[in-house]
Amino acid sequence: MGELTKIILIGTIAGVFGTGIGGMIIAFLGRPRGNMLCFLLTFSSGIMIAVVFHDLIPEALALGNMSSTLLGIALGVGGLYLLNKYIPHAHLPQRRGVDQRHRSTVRLMRTGMLLGLGIAMHNFPEGLAIGAGYMASEELGFGLALALALHNIPEGMAMAAPLVAGGLGRYRVMFWTALAGLPMGIGALVGGLFGGLSASVLSVALGFAAGAMIFLVFHELIPEAQRLNNPRSSILGAIVGVLLGLFALLVL
Question: Among 104, 30, 76, which Cα is nearest to 218's?
């Protein structure tokens, strides 16, 4: 097996394994309803907030500066705003019962897919780190791949929660969450070929991922939880999500 092929394989497995395992954990809990649905939506928000403010933004600042980080965040928020605006919405009659449940299901599925897009954006620069690390030394590349695979588990959980709540089957949830990790393999390829991009470009890319996730949390996940009108479950889910996200990021 060629060295470049090995780098691609390692990066791909790390990405797919991490988000896929996170998706599997949530998928096998079954479709949530009521208080549990509200809890899981804000739980996902809490995990994303932890990832953004403990991981993405500090890493973007370390690689670049305030300007490159803020530029990335602005591009991420703006890009997701435009994507959200032009992706077809569910224009169903404003009636109670089946139509209202259908509208909620469509919103949840759409939120999960958009969240997966944000996670995929995050995984590309992480793959660059694996590829560049492997070119420096095989041990460093493997170490980074293992750390990032474990690191991506809570992100897979965050993506899976709205998909499961929207009624997507468990194996499809596992498929889509695993697919969100695929860009890590592409990033590993680029990192292996070029030894990584400039620090400023990586800073903007990480800021972009942070901005996309911020938009999704405050435009999609939290408003959807508020529609369920379970404030205690919402608060508990957000707190548990932030704390578990921070714990996973620190330990894994």
Answer: 76
Q: Tokens for 154?
A: 């809570």
Assign 177 a pLDDT band (cuts: 50, 70, 90): very high
Amino acid at 46: G
DSSP state of 88: P
- Rounded CA gap, 227 and 190, in Å? 43
Give the separation between CA 214 and CA 197, rounded to whole angstroms.
25
* CA–CA dist 28, 39 (Å, integer): 16
Question: Is 177:116 a contact under the CB 8 Å cutoff?
Answer: yes
Which helix (H) or strand (E) is 32 found in, with range?
none
How far apart CA 15 and CA 194 sit, in angstroms, is 20
CB 207 within 8 A of CB 76: yes
Q: Which amino acid is at 97?
A: G
Residue 131 has pLDDT above 50, yes or no: yes
Question: Where do the domains of the chain lie?
Answer: 3-251
pLDDT for residue 63: 84
Tell me if residue 27 falls in helix, strand or coil: helix
d(CA 126, CA 77): 20
| Closest-CA residue to 19 (of 113, 123, 114) | 123
HSE-CB of 202 using CA atoms within 13 angstroms: 24
In 52-137, which ranges are continuous DSSP H helix? 57-63, 66-86, 98-136
Using CB atoms within 10 Å of the CB of residue 96, give its burial: 0 to 12 exposed, 13 to 18 middle, 19+ buried.
Answer: exposed
Per-residue pLDDT tens digits for 63-93: 889 999 999 999 989 988 887 777 654 433 3
